[in-house]
Design goal:
Number of helices: 10
Shape: elongated
Distance between the termini: 68 Å
Structural class: mainly alpha
Radius of gyration: 23 Å
Helix content: over 70%
Number of strands: 0
Length: 324
C-alpha cells in the first residue's frame, strides 16, 4: 500500500476520536486549539522522546538479558509502557499547573488527546512497514485503530484524571495520586502489550480492551455529571445574590443551555461561557490556596461583572424594542 494510504488510515480514525472526545465534554469544553496542541505533542514530541528513551533503557536491559526473544518481550511489556507513558504524560504535568485546568474531565480530554496523537504516529509507522501485504495491512488498520491507539488514549487519559484529582483534592495524600495514575497507565499499557504478544491470549486482550473502553466511557460520563453538579451547586448562591436569574439555574446546568429562546440569542453563547467559568472559579477557590486562590477569587468577581453587563445589555435592548 502507498504511504499516503497508510497515513490516511492512521490519521482519519484518530481525528474522528479526537473530535468525539472534545464533543463529549458538554459543560466546559476545552479550547480546540489547546486540545490539538496536546494531540500534536503525542504525535511528534512524545514519539521522539519515546524512541530515544526506549533505546536507552533497552541498552541497559541488554546487559542483563541476552536472549533476543526475551528482550523483545521485555521491551513490549515493560520498557514500552514505562517509557511511553512518561513521555506522553510529562506534557500533562505542565498542563495541570495551568490555571485553565479546571477539573478531572480536563485531564481525561487532554490526556486522551495526547494518547490519540501518539497512536496516530505509531499506527502510521506500523501500517507503512507492513504495507507490502494487503491482508496483513487491513488487519493492522482494524486492530490498531480500534484497540491499540484507543489504549494509548485511555492510558494517558487515566494519568490526566489522577493529576486532576491531585490538583483539586483536599486530602493530605494528594501528592501520591499522580504516581497511582501513572502506575495504572503503565499497567494497562503493559497488559495490552502482553496479551497481544501471544496468539493464544490475543482474544483475551481484545476482551480486556473492550471492558477498559466501557469503563473509560462510564468514568467520563460520571465526570461530566460531576461537572453539572458543580455548576448547579456553585451558582445557587449567585441566584440568591441576584447575579443570575433563578430561572437560569436549571438551564445552565443541563443540556437545555444549548437551546435557543431562554435568553437573547446574541449573548447566549458568551453568557453560558462566563457563567460556567464563574462556577468553576468558585469551585477552584475552595480547593486551592495561596496565589492561585487569590487569582480565582479575582477572576470570579470579574465573571460577575461580565454577567451583569451581558444581562443589562439584554434588558436595555428589550426595553428599546418595547418602546419602539
Amino acid at each position: 500500500m502507498p504511504s499516503a494510504a497508510s497515513f490516511l488510515a492512521a490519521a482519519i480514525p484518530m481525528l474522528i476520536y479526537l473530535w468525539l472526545l472534545w464533543k463529549m465534554d458538554k459543560y466546559e469544553r476545552e479550547p480546540l486549539g489547546f486540545v490539538i496542541g496536546h494531540f500534536l505533542w503525542g504525535a511528534i514530541g512524545a514519539i521522539i522522546f519515546a524512541v530515544i528513551g526506549s533505546q536507552f533503557v533497552g541498552n541497559i536491559f541488554q546487559i542483563f538479558v541476552t536472549d533476543f526473544e526475551s528482550l523483545n518481550l521485555f521491551g513490549a511489556i515493560l520498557i514500552a509502557p514505562f517509557v511511553e507513558e512518561i513521555t506522553k504524560g510529562i506534557f500533562l504535568v505542565g498542563t495541570v499547573a495551568n490555571r485553565k485546568f479546571d477539573n478531572i474531565t480536563d485531564g481525561l480530554v487532554y490526556g486522551g488527546a495526547i494518547g490519540l496523537g501518539f497512536g496516530m504516529t505509531e499506527n502510521f509507522l506500523y501500517f507503512d512497514t507492513y504495507s507490502y501485504d494487503f491482508d496483513q495491512w487491513i488487519f493492522l488498520v482494524i486492530i490498531r485503530s480500534a484497540f491499540t491507539a484507543v489504549m494509548h488514549a485511555i492510558a494517558t487519559g487515566t494519568f490526566g484524571a489522577f493529576l486532576g484529582m491531585s490538583k483539586f483534592s483536599k486530602s493530605a495524600n494528594k501528592k501520591v495520586l499522580p504516581f497511582i495514575g501513572l502506575f495504572l497507565a503503565m499497567t494497562l499499557h503493559g497488559l495490552w502489550n502482553l496479551s497481544v504478544s501471544f496468539q493464544e491470549s490475543a482474544y483475551y486482550g481484545l476482551l480486556f480492551m473492550i471492558v477498559v473502553i466501557i469503563v473509560f466511557i462510564i468514568v467520563f460520563t460520571k465526570s461530566i455529571r460531576k461537572e453539572r453538579e458543580i455548576i448547579k451547586l456553585q451558582l445557587t448562591d449567585e441566584v440568591e445574590r441576584g447575579i443570575i436569574p433563578i430561572e437560569h439555574l436549571d438551564i445552565i446546568s443541563s443540556t437545555k443551555r444549548e437551546r435557543s429562546g431562554w435568553i437573547n440569542e446574541a449573548i447566549r453563547k458568551n453568557y453560558i461561557k462566563v457563567v460556567t467559568k464563574l462556577a468553576f472559579r468558585k469551585f477552584q477557590t475552595e480547593t486551592t490556596t495561596g496565589k492561585n486562590q487569590e487569582f480565582y477569587i479575582k477572576d470570579a468577581e470579574q465573571c460577575r461583572i461580565e454577567i451583569k453587563k451581558l444581562l443589562n445589555n439584554q434588558n436595555d435592548e428589550i426595553t428599546t424594542q418595547t418602546e419602539v
